[in-house]
UniProtKB/TrEMBL annotation, chains A, B:
This is Glycolate oxidase. PROSITE patterns: FAD_PCMH. The lineage of its organism: Bacteria, Bacillati, Actinomycetota, Actinomycetes, Kineosporiales. Keywords: FAD, Flavoprotein, Oxidoreductase. It comes from the Bacteria. Residues 1-24 have a biased composition (Basic and acidic residues). Gene3D superfamilies: 3.30.465.10, 3.30.70.2740, Vanillyl-alcohol Oxidase, Chain A, domain 4 (1.10.45.10). It comes from Kineococcus rhizosphaerae. GO terms for molecular function: FAD binding; oxidoreductase activity. It holds the Pfam family FAD_binding_4. Residues 1-25 are annotated as: Disordered. The keyword Flavoprotein applies. Residues 22-201 form the FAD-binding PCMH-type domain.
């Protein structure tokens, strides 16, 4: 364990990738190397009633790991061992600091994969994925982080260790504390280990890209894919603002093919037949579409999606929302976001996990400008309001963090929030775990 | 709402299908017709501090809905409306008394299905499925009840109504109260409505039955299927005791083909190719195997599994366990159960969801004999002990109920159980909801 109090160390852990900038710095950083370090830190924090902000790779998008004066940051990114992969059980046991993409690669050596694949997989850690119940591109077919977590090793606020869940894929002994802690954003306990479900790698993959005159046609095509009972593993929508940024960054001319695109992947036996069926469904809506089973060509088709966020980030500072709506409301949500952008004059690009109704409206401001106040934040709040009006949620996969907390009551209601605060008190009676975040 | 106090009505709701017989009868039965009935009952029960045992179809296997003197049974089986099916969102909204098979059939009219399929689907209700986090045959591929529940409408112990979850397939706003209530066996709140995820019906299905000289070879073949990265939707193991009962009941001669069988189903595009790959994997282990895409022939192959439990029930009274072990321990578990049967002289048949390591050791006693005491119960307890020693769990999908409660501490440990009791107190401070069950 290393305890650091110098300014540079504290600045490095003050916030995440949300764009939020706390006014002050945390008092200190503990770099934990093992479970004992975490136990010791929490015992000390309990004794001194000092708030602890647990931090993984710092890739969060809701300021869930931002910290300020009077708080200590518990950095578990150094606890990064893949403890065990048991191919016969299709299970991995990991420490929280393991990067998501590293686990996926290690599973790949056994013909397996780790399904949750947030766009941040190369830079985000499993612990952070668990804290926010991270999703990703493949979760339309394979579920989110919660669906992949079989059990957790926790350190409670008072330093006691508790194991939740099990080593088996099924089990109903006791309440589901595992699911309760997944998505709890560091407010209930510190995750020091996780038993994760792996899945067999699909034998075949096929990829399609389709372009459309407008984003409403693209959303309608996505809905038609779902209605046709097809089950892509990836079904992503990209709007004109994003396509223009990608073209500027890569010298491509995607925008000339239409004002919106869908990128679709099918996998498993029969992937090619399924992608061809997708092609037949999208054809009446599309200006053009193309499908391939060639991996190199597939990467080219995926570029419109994968290059989207980096391309937008190259044009300014961003705040990435992740509202979700019922799948049938996707077109309405996309049109509503465009109207908000037009009304407020704030630049908003939209990328969406269309397969599960999860949208990423990306508010883009000039480099150095603050995203989380003034007109950009008002536009972001109008998007929250839109999502709730469409029967949706504030956050599909990024978490509430600090930034969405004022909106939470509107979504959950008084009685539900009251239950949640009392559950928080069961786990953390002194209120020292990431106070002011999540609920 | 009807309040019944006559003896016949109270006898009809005193227990479930576990074999447990309470010494006394509950004081009364409330037959709820709508949410207001439930609210009124719980307000009255809170005011009078009277314990309430919520009951669906009464098909439980762990005495989770058994009730005794001093308790009132709240029967919600009459709240049986499918409120809405929204095909475009692949979502159903139902009341708790809807029978599982009825929901699946209604979804089928839209080309969709409801994935959880406990063997009791024709007689068990969604509310009970939620209470126990029911599994079934298809959950190896499609997950358990918890994976299908997007949101719940609850009535709390004090009569307040709270909604959990959402209408969207993804969402992380607030703690996951939905997953907490799923599997909580009526101890946290009364479920009066559920928003459920439906899935597209697979376009193709292929079925295989294979027979083996002994059950260890069958378990090894099941493990080999998993290791080969194949993903059957159904992967069931049936032992010799069960095959003999099926032969006696149906006049078949399955036992002559071997001392154990596997029944396998693959679905989706490429189902036939996948089942053929399954055949190649099991062939070295099997005495004989056969695959088909013909629906009538498929039903015949499935009969060894589907007819198993009714055939055993025709030979005596049964207690059905549902321990689960890591998938790689399946053969060891099956061998251990056989050893327990030999050592105790108690007849135990085994059917297993081999795809997820979930076993159903079925203790069979003479008609009218009590399963839950004496040597039969000692044998059942030896199976619990075996499962825990193999790194498994007491219950994969039936719940803890009354009967497995004494074993719970051994599985969960003191600190975890303490957390769970304190969570129970958050929801039900007076302790009136199904006391003595679950945790």
């Amino acid at each position: 364990m290393r305890l650091l109090e110098d300014r540079a160390a504290r600045e490095a852990v003050a916030t995440d990738r949300s764009g939020h900038r706390p006014d002050t710095l945390p008092d200190a950083v503990v770099r934990a190397r093992n479970v004992d370090d975490v136990v010791e830190t929490l015992r000390w924090a309990s004794a001194h009633r000092t708030p602890v902000v647990t931090r993984g790779a710092g890739s969060g998008l809701a300021a869930g790991s931002s910290a300020h004066a009077g708080q200590v940051v518990l950095d578990v990114s150094g606890m990064d061992r893949i403890v065990e992969i048991r191919p016969d059980d299709q299970v991995a046991v990991v420490e929280p600091g393991v990067l998501t993409a590293d686990l996926d690669a290690a599973a790949g050596e056994h013909g397996l994969f780790y399904a949750p694949d947030p766009a941040s997989a190369a830079i985000s850690s499993i612990g952070g994925n668990i804290a926010t119940n991270a999703g990703g591109l493949r979760c339309a077919k394979y579920g989110v982080t919660r669906d992949a977590v079989l059990g957790l090793d926790l350190v409670l606020a008072d330093g006691r260790r508790v194991a939740t869940g099990r080593q088996t894929v099924k089990g109903v002994a006791g309440y589901d504390l595992t699911s309760l802690v997944v998505g709890s954003e560091g407010t209930l306990a510190v995750v020091v280990g996780a038993t994760l479900r792996l899945r067999p790698k699909p034998l075949e993959t096929a990829t399609l890209a389709a372009h459309f005159d407008d984003v409403v046609a693209a959303a309608a095509a996505a809905a038609a894919i779902t209605s046709a009972r097809l089950q892509p593993s990836v079904l992503e929508l990209v709007d004109a603002v994003t396509l223009e940024a990608v073209d500027a960054a890569r010298g491509s001319s995607l925008r000339s093919l239409g004002a919106a695109a869908l990128v679709v992947q099918c996998d498993g036996r029969g992937a090619l037949a399924e992608i061809e069926a997708v092609g037949q469904v999208v054809a009446p809506f599309a200006t053009t579409w193309r499908a391939t089973t060639d991996p190199v060509e597939a990467e080219e088709l995926l570029a419109a999606r994968r290059a989207g966020l980096p391309a937008l980030e190259a044009t300014g500072d961003v705040f990435i929302e992740d509202v979700a709506v019922p799948r049938s409301k996707l077109a309405e949500a996309v049109a509503g976001i465009q109207a908000i952008s037009a009304r407020t004059g704030v630049r908003i690009a939209t990328i969406a996990h269309a397969g599960d109704g999860n949208l990423h409206p990306i508010v883009v401001v000039e480099r150095g400008a603050t995203v989380t106040e003034g007109p950009p934040w008002e536009a972001a709040c109008a998007v929250f309001d839109l999502a709730l009006r469409l029967g949706g949620t504030l956050t599909g996969e990024h978490g509430v963090g600090l930034l969405k907390r004022t909106w939470l009551r509107a979504e959950l209601g008084e009685d539900s929030l009251d239950l949640q605060h009392r559950i928080k008190a069961v786990f953390d009676p002194l209120g020292i775990l990431n106070p002011g975040k999540g609920i």
